Amino acid sequence: MKLNPVISSRVRQIPESATMKIADIAAQLRSEGRDIISFSLGEPDFETPENIKRAAKTALDRGETHYTQGSGIPELREAIAEKLKEDNNVDVSPADVLVTPGAKQAIFEAICTFIDEGDEVLLLDPAWVSYEAIVKFAGGKPVMVPVSEQDGYVPVDLQSHITRDTKLLILNSPCNPTGAVYGKNAIKTAAETAEDHGVFVLSDEVYEKIIYGAKHHSIGSLIPDRTITINGFSKAYAMTGWRLGYATAPAPILQGMLKIQQHSVSNATSFVQRAGVEALRGDQGAVRAMVAEFEKRRDLMIDGLRKIGIECALPRGAFYAFAKVSQFGTSVEVTEKLLQDALVAVTPGSAFGPNGEGYVRLSYATSRQNIEEGINRIEASLARA
Ligand SMILES: Cc1ncc(COP(=O)(O)O)c(C=O)c1O
Q1: Which of 33, 246, 293, 371 has the maximum number of C-beta atoms within 10 A of its C-beta?
Q2: Which residues span the domain enclosing 364?
Q3: Across 214-237, average pLDDT
């Protein structure tokens, strides 16, 4: 059956997720018995800490299996407001917090609340794939602002991309896919530019805790009246499957987001919210141990790539290496070759925007053994080219 004519143009213009596509091919090869090493994962390979699981089980056993307030249970909103104050210097009350089923849902609600047909949204290219897709769903126009490795993937010239239609700038530090962390000056400059031009900022801080020796700065501490700060539990607490995130924003924006939430998903899962309280208030030892392990894997991955002649900036956060492979072909050619010939799954840099062409993203959220074996395979495969 030809369904295309009945699918809305908004949905038709969204490309299939490149990360999902590679994951599908890798899964197919695996089901054929091939031993694939995946560097394409976007999630920690650790278990959710026990204390967090226990909190959810206790809530379940207590019968917390019903709808909650749309904005989230008061205890979790309190814990989030405290966290934002302590970690991020973003001074908000629990009433200024919206709990969502994942940070992605919060990003979706924020963009839909904010964007009218034709409004422009600045994305720093390369950027996480879902921003562009969501802006398009909302009828907005993504404007890709190229950022380069030489500049630490930080925007040096935002102003020249701002027009009368520019409404929103999306920042993501630590960054997926580059691992860049914006320093104090970069955040300050972005804040001043936003203020000068009346632009709002969506700050996606989901990788905040996964950071190596650098300091995380929240733009919401500088321009709270212009910032939607979004964070979640997936990455910091290895809770991708739980679907729990949150946002804080000026009241009218947060109210808009709440409306979308109430009429779509109602609320984040009741007992999962209890787990969120424990994640924020409980022992943080598991997070520290996970980040220490990620740092070792990062070093293994970067050293390994450099030894086999692949250039790669040192990521300061998240769990991705963004490696230059243009000498071996286009992003997609190299990705396909590595998958078919080396049995190593990576993500083509071009999936993150035109400026990502010539790069591939390698996730090191996998064992050290896999990283060593994967690098050996890549070396052997490229030598066969
Ligand atoms: C930059 C970025 N933001 C948001 C998310 C989604 O987070 P959540 O699982 O909380 O929806 C991801 C997941 O890959 C991400 O890379």
Answers
A1: 246
A2: 4-47+285-383
A3: 98
To the nearest whole number, what is the mean pLDDT of the chain?
95
Bridge pairing between strands 227-232 and 200-204:
parallel
**Nearest CA residue ID for atom 7, ligand 1:** 103
CATH number at residue 339: 3.90.1150.10
Q: Which of 225, 254, 281 is the last residue of a domain?
A: 281
| 26-48 per-position pLDDT tens digit | 888 999 999 999 998 888 899 99
Same domain, 40 and 58: no
CB within 6 Å of ligand 1 — which residues? 42, 102-104, 128, 172, 176, 204, 206, 232, 234, 240, 245
Q: What is the reported pLDDT for 2? A: 59
> What is the distance between the alpha carbons of residues 379 and 239, in angstroms, rounded to a whole number?
33
For 164-210, write each residue's pLDDT tens digit: 999 999 999 999 999 999 999 999 999 999 999 999 999 999 999 99
Alpha carbon nearest to ligand 1 atom 6, residue: 104
Shared-domain flag, residues 78 and 90: yes
Same domain? 325 vs 277: no
Polymer length of the chain = 385
Q: Is the dihedral of CA 15, 247, 148, 161 positive or negative?
A: positive
The string of DSSP letters for 262-300 reads: HTTT-SS-HHHHHHHHHHHHS--HHHHHHHHHHHHHHHH
Count of domains observed in the chain: 2
